[in-house]
C-alpha cells in the first residue's frame, strides 16, 4: 500500500490563537500532532479577520465548498443549463439529463442483454442509495421492502455493500449475512477465506465474523487507527458547543455533519475542523452532502474496493462478469470510473437532480433502486 505524504491541510487560523489546554485537550493526548498547533476557540474569529487576507480567501473557498455540497435545486439546474430556470422546469431539465444518463429502469432490457451469459456482481452504496438521506444519520434506516429486494438480488448474484460508514454500523443497518461488506469507504473489507484469490494480499488478516465464522479482513489504513481515534475525540470536544454538529467515528475515517447546524455557524465548523487537521498531514478532508469527511491519505477509494472485491471473488480478469455499482455521492464516482474504464460494467447514479457523473445510468431516488 502506498501511503503518501502530503502538504498540510488548508488552514483557517483565528485572530486569537490558543493552546489545546484551553480546549481541555492536553498535548500529551495528541501524539500524532506534528507541531504545536494554534487553535482559535473564538467563534467570531472568522468575521474578525482583516478583509482580503489569505485566511479570508481560504475561508471563502471552504465555505463555498460546504454550501455547494448540497446546493439548492434551482442552483443545480442553473449550473446544468447555464441559465436561470424556474423550479417548475425541473422535470423537463431532469428528463433532458436522462438522455445522457438514461434511467436504469427504462434500460433494464439493455442491461439484461449485456448480462446474458455473464455473471452479474452487484455493488451498493448505503446512505442515499438503500436508505433516504435524513437529518439524523443514526436514523437512516432502509425499509423492510428494500431489505427484501437486496436479499433477493444476493440470492442470485454476489452482492456487496460499500459504505463510508464503519463496517459494523452498515452491517447493523443492513442486517443481511449473505452480503459482502466494505466500510470506511472501502478501507475495511470482509471477505470469506474460500474467496481468497491469488495476488497481492498485504494488509489482510484473519478474523471471525459475528457468527464466529472465519473471515479475511482487508484494512489498508490499519496504521491510521490511533490517529483517527485521536482526531475523533478532539473533534467531538471542540464541536460540542456547536448546536446541531455531529461527529461520527467510522473506524478509518471521521465525519463532521453540519446538516443541522445553522448556516451562520458553518464558518465555525470549518475553522475548528481545519485548525485541527492542519497538524495531520497524513489525513485529508473531502466534502460530502453537508458533511466533512476526514480520511487517511492513502491510495485507496471505493473504486479500488470494487477492484479488490472482484479479484477476491475470482473475477478480476474475467470477461464473463458484469459489475454494477449503484451509489449517490461523490465518493461513489471513483467506483463509477473503474467500471467506465474499458466499458467494464455499469455505474448507476442515484440523483433527483442533474449532475455530471462517471456513471452510465441514473435512478431518481432509493425507491427506484428498490425496483
Ligand atoms: Mg451515499
From TrEMBL:
Q: What class of enzyme is it?
A: hydrolase
Cofactor(s) named in the record:
a divalent metal cation
Family annotation (InterPro entries): HAD-like_sf, HAD-SF_hydro_IIB, HAD_sf, OTSB-like, Trehalose_PPase
The UniProt record lists the keyword Metal-binding: no
- EC number from the UniProt entry: 3.1.3.12
Record pathway = Glycan biosynthesis; trehalose biosynthesis
> Locations of Polar residues compositional bias?
1-19
Note whether Cytoplasm occurs among the keywords: no
Gene Ontology terms describing biological process = trehalose biosynthetic process
As one GO molecular function, the record gives: trehalose-phosphatase activity
Q: Where is this region: Disordered?
A: 1-23
What is catalyzed by this enzyme? alpha,alpha-trehalose 6-phosphate + H2O = alpha,alpha-trehalose + phosphate
Q: What are the entry keywords?
A: Hydrolase, Stress response
Name the domain of life this protein comes from. Answer: Eukaryota
Q: Which Pfam families match?
A: Trehalose_PPase (PF02358)
What stretches pass through the bilayer? none
The free-text function statement in the UniProt record for this protein reads: Removes the phosphate from trehalose 6-phosphate to produce free trehalose. Trehalose accumulation in plant may improve abiotic stress tolerance.
Q: Which family does it belong to?
A: Belongs to the trehalose phosphatase family.
Protein name stated in the entry:
Trehalose 6-phosphate phosphatase
**What organism is this sequence from?**
Olea europaea subsp. europaea
Amino acid at each position: 500500500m502506498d501511503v503518501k505524504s502530503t502538504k498540510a491541510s488548508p488552514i483557517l487560523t483565528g485572530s486569537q490563537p490558543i493552546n489545546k489546554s484551553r480546549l481541555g485537550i492536553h498535548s500529551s493526548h495528541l501524539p500524532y500532532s506534528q507541531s504545536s498547533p494554534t487553535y482559535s476557540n473564538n467563534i467570531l474569529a472568522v468575521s474578525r479577520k482583516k478583509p482580503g487576507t489569505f485566511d479570508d480567501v481560504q475561508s471563502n473557498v471552504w465555505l463555498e465548498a460546504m454550501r455547494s455540497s448540497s446546493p439548492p435545486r434551482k442552483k443545480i439546474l442553473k449550473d446544468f443549463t447555464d441559465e436561470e430556470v424556474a423550479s417548475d422546469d425541473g422535470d423537463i431539465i431532469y428528463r433532458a439529463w436522462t438522455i445522457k444518463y438514461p434511467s436504469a429502469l427504462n434500460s433494464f432490457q439493455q442491461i439484461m442483454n449485456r448480462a446474458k451469459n455473464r455473471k452479474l456482481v452487484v455493488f451498493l452504496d448505503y446512505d442515499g442509495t438503500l436508505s433516504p438521506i435524513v437529518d439524523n444519520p443514526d436514523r437512516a434506516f432502509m425499509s423492510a421492502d428494500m431489505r427484501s429486494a437486496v436479499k433477493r438480488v444476493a440470492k442470485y448474484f454476489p452482492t456487496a455493500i460499500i459504505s463510508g460508514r464503519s463496517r459494523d454500523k452498515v452491517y447493523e443497518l443492513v442486517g443481511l449475512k449473505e452480503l459482502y461488506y466494505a466500510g470506511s469507504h472501502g478501507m475495511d473489507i470482509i471477505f470469506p477465506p474460500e474467496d481468497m484469490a491469488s495476488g497481492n494480499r498485504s494488509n489482510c488478516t484473519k478474523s471471525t465474523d459475528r457468527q464466529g465464522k472465519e473471515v479475511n479482513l482487508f484494512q489498508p489504513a490499519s496504521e491510521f487507527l490511533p490517529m483517527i481515534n485521536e482526531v475523533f475525540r478532539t473533534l467531538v470536544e471542540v464541536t460540542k458547543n456547536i448546536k446541531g454538529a455531529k461527529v461520527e467515528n467510522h473506524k478509518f475515517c471521521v465525519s463532521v455533519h453540519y446538516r443541522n447546524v445553522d448556516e451562520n455557524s458553518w464558518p465555525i465548523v470549518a475553522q475548528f475542523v481545519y485548525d485541527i487537521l492542519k497538524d495531520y498531514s497524513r489525513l485529508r478532508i473531502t466534502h460530502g452532502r453537508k458533511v466533512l469527511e476526514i480520511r487517511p491519505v492513502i491510495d485507496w477509494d471505493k473504486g479500488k474496493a470494487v477492484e479488490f472485491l472482484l479479484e477476491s471473488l475470482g473475477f478480476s480478469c474475467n470477461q464473463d462478469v458484469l459489475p454494477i455499482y449503484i451509489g449517490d455521492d461523490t465518493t461513489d464516482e471513483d467506483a463509477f470510473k473503474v467500471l467506465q474504464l474499458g466499458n467494464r460494467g455499469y455505474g448507476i447514479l442515484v440523483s433527483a437532480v442533474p449532475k455530471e457523473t462517471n456513471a452510465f445510468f441514473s435512478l431518481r431516488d432509493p425507491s427506484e433502486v428498490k425496483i
